[in-house]
Design a protein that fits this description.
Length: 83
């Protein structure tokens, strides 16, 4: 799967969990889930579950701890897919 497609797929997942005061246009690879996109920890767990389903991968606690930004998430997805 191409990087652009992966990014768009991830962006679509994240978009569902954005609070009302954050626009989808604010999602960038450098965006921090918590501090910039205002995603709370419960929604972050939902994003992780959706990522696992969408990309057919399994994320460990260590992966979740490293997933601070959108780019981190893409990196982890790539490493799991290329396993």
């Amino acid at each position: 799967m191409q990087e652009v497609k992966k990014y768009q797929k991830l962006k679509n997942i994240i978009q569902v969990y954005l609070p009302e005061d954050v626009s989808v246009d604010e999602i960038r690879p450098s965006s921090n889930f918590v501090s910039e996109l205002n995603i709370n920890s419960a929604n972050l767990v939902d994003i992780i579950l959706d990522v696992e389903d969408a990309f057919d991968i399994r994320l460990e606690n260590e992966d979740m701890n490293q997933m601070q930004t959108v780019a981190d998430a893409l990196h982890i997805i790539n490493s799991k897919l290329n396993g």
